[in-house]
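Morning!

This is the sequence you dropped in the shared folder:
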Amino acid sequence: MVDDAHVAIVIPLYNEEMVVGKVLQELREKYSKYKIIVIDDCSTDKSYEAACLGGVYMLRHMVNLGQGAALQTGIEFAKKLDCKYIVMFDSDGQHDPEDIAPFVLALDEDKADIVLGSRFLGKTENMPLRKKYLLKLSRIFTWVTTGIWLSDSHNGLRALNIEKFPNFEITQNRMAHASEIISIIKILNMRYIEMPCKIRYTQYSLNKGQSMWNSVNIIVDYFLGSVFK
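The structure's back. C-alpha cells below.
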C-alpha cells in the first residue's frame, strides 16, 4: 500500500486564476492525504489568491523564473517534507486527477524510477491537428538529443521517486525543462515507463497554447542551456 503522507503533487502556477481553484479542489477531494504544493511563478493576475485554499502549501516566486524553475522549487520543498514520491501536475485543468494514483502505484511497486504520462497511449479531448503534429516532431527531437524514444515527450504529468534520486535537478528554468527531464533520465540511468493519461483540451487551454514560434524558442533555449550550463 502506498503511504499517502509521503506523496507530493507539485503544481507550477502562472496566470491561471480562472481554473486553478477548481483544479485544486478536485485534487484535495481525491487525494486528501497527499501534500499538494503550488508554486506561483509571480503571476500577474489573481492566481495566487485563487490557489490559497486550505490543505495546500503555497510557495511564491517574487520574480517570474519559468515553469522549470517552479517545478524545481516544488521538488526541493517536497524533499524537506520527507516525501518519497513526487507527481508533477499542470494547473490549467488539462490533466485528469484520476491518472495520478496509477502512476504512484507503479513507483511503489518498483516498476520504474520515473513514470511519464502519454496522451497518445491514453485519451485526448479536442486536440488540434497542429498540436498533434507538433508533438510528433518533438518525439524526434527528443530521440536525436537523448537517444530515448517516447510516444509523448512533452507531457507535464510525471511521477518521480525522489527518495531514490535526490540528485534529480531541473536547471532549465523555462519550457525547455521538458526536454531536460528526458536528458536527466539518461544521465542518472533511471528506469522509466510511459503510462496512459488523459488530456482535456478546452477552449480556455487552447487560447493559451504554445505557438509554433514558441516551440522553436524552446528548442533554442534547451541547446543554449545545455551548452552554457
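Headline: The radius of gyration is 16 Å.

More detail when I'm at my desk.
O.
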